[in-house]
Amino acid sequence: MNATAASGPGMFTALPRQPADALLAVIGMHRADPRLDKIDVGVGVYRDETGATPVMRSVKAAERRLLAEQDSKSYLGAEGDQRFTDLLASIALGSERADDPRVTGIQTPGGTGALRLAAELIARTGRSPTVWVGTPTWPNHAPIFQAAGLTVRTTPYFDVVSADIDFDAMIDGLAQAKDGDVVLLHGCCHNPTGTTLSADQWRILAPIMVTRGLIPLIDLAYQGLGQGLEEDAAGARSLLAAVPEALIAYSCDKNFALYRERVGALWVQSSSAAVAVPVRENLLALARSLWSMPPDHGAAVVRLILEDELLTNDWCLELSGMRRRINDLRLLLGAVHPALAPIAHQEGLFALLPITPDDAAALRTDHGIYLPNSGRINVAGLNHGTVGRFADALALYLKG
Ligand code: LMR
User: Fold this and answer.
1) Which are the catalytic amino acids?
2) Where residue 134 sits, what CATH number does that domain have?
3) Could you tell me if the CB of 138 is within 6 A of ligand 1?
4) Ligand 1 centroid, distance to 274 Cα (angstroms)
5) How far is Cα 95 from Cα 231, in angstroms, rounded to an integer?
6) 35 lies in a domain?
7) Fewest Cβ atoms closer than 10 Å to its Cβ: which of 39, 298, 352, 380?
């Protein structure tokens, strides 16, 4: 009652305004559009032929089991569900790396949590490495590393004209990287371009990374949505086998359709089993100060699936169905216009359309087709009924 009003404008008045996240804004714009034939090819979630993002059958079964059998929700610790991380390691890294004592990993809140933890760990080394990202990349990559105080620089990655990876330009760009710098690589199904480094390109990259002392940070967020679980991880695994040190950020958002449950993991491969000890201690200390402990539900569900052969088989079946649908849509899209032909042989949820930000805005306003200004589309946002209308509208803006 006697409190005096604070003098001055207050602490928060100095905060700069922030632009809305470009991808998340598209969700809101689509929601607000009353047109019945609107199409959402914005944020990267898998959709089925009816436009739904259903809970997977295997996830539902595991959730039922969890509900019936879970007898405590007491804390697990900063590492989260370690058995989840260990079982997932075999899927992501392969059994050889999963059993490698130089490799240690913990559960994280989604792939974003894994990337942020990786960034904080890198910052903690005191080496001030630059993180190199290809252009374009997921718009959240640079902010995550910068938030941890790291410098981010770019190398070329995608050539718009050929709609393919410009591997030579990428390697040339990396010539500026110095010993100890970190190179962010998309394990498969590149976001936003739908490209994936070929086995040969991974092979060429490995000795360059080793001789130049560059450390790969592999973002593996779409395993199983490209060519298959094994195929999508093969490149990353070959690089891990060749380099002494690496980081792998993993997301179960898409391949387990657990988006809002925030399920992910970070593994770090160190130069020796002895070095893996302080690495793990630092991961745990950082996690404790970032989020204390990750959310449990989604990780427990994935653990239950991976512990049970029948559930694992069913999950794999569901995942192949999702992959087939995406690839069918890719073939359809690739056939409707010469400028879209590359989409047929790209992979995963995303493709980058050869259109301008103004074209993307016109597609939203005039045609009710929702995509970010970057021209990225979520292929799975289409279905066999909408692909024709989408292609007709898009053709107005395509050259050639
Ligand atoms: C996307 O790129 O659309 C997804 O990864 C969702 C996100 O968090 O941006």
Assistant:
1) 138, 219, 221, 254
2) 3.40.640.10
3) yes
4) 36
5) 15
6) yes
7) 352
Integer angstrom CA distances of residue 392 from 154, 336, 398:
35, 9, 10
CB 252 within 8 A of CB 258: yes
Per-residue pLDDT at 2 exceeds 60? no
Poorest-pLDDT segment among 20-29, 269-278, 327-336, 346-355: 20-29
Q: Would the CB of 137 count as within 6 Å of ligand 1?
A: no
**Is the pLDDT assigned to residue 3 strictly greater than 90?**
no
User: Can you tell me the mean pLDDT for 5-19?
Assistant: 84
Strand partners, 164: 159
* Residues 136 and 178 grouped into a single domain: yes
Residues 166-187 have pLDDT tens digits of 999 999 999 999 999 999 999 9
Which residue has the CA at smallest separation from atom 6 of ligand 1? 44
Residue 206 and residue 94: Cα distance in Å, rounded?
18
Q: Is the CB of 193 under 6 A from ligand 1?
A: no
Number of the ligand 1 atom closest to the C-alpha atom of 21 = 9
CA of 192 to the centre of ligand 1 (A): 9
* Ligand 1 center to 85 CA (angstroms): 22
Ligand 1: nearest atom to the Cα of 140: 9
- Comparing C-alpha atoms, which of 159, 160, 161 is closest to residue 172? 159
- Examine the domain organization and report whether 187 and 131 are in the same domain: yes
Q: Kindly report the pTM of this predicted structure.
A: 0.96
112 and 228 both lie in a single domain? yes
Q: Is the peptide bond before 295 cis (omega within 30 degrees of 0)?
A: no
Q: Name the strand (E) or helix (H) holding 251.
A: strand 246-251
The secondary structure of 318-352, three-state, reads HHHHHHHHHHHHHHHHHHHCHHHHHHHHCCCCEEE
Number of independent structural domains in the chain: 2
* Residue-averaged pLDDT of the chain: 96
Q: Is ligand 1 within 6 A of the CB of residue 191?
A: yes
Q: Which of 10, 40, 31 is nearest to 390 (CA)?
A: 40
Instruction: For ligand 1, say whether the CB of 23 is within 6 Å of any of its atoms.
Output: yes
Q: What is the mean pLDDT of residues 357-373?
A: 97
Whether 371 is in the pocket of ligand 1, judged by its Cβ within 6 Å, is no
Domain boundary among 275, 307, 339: 307
Residue 14 lies in a domain: no
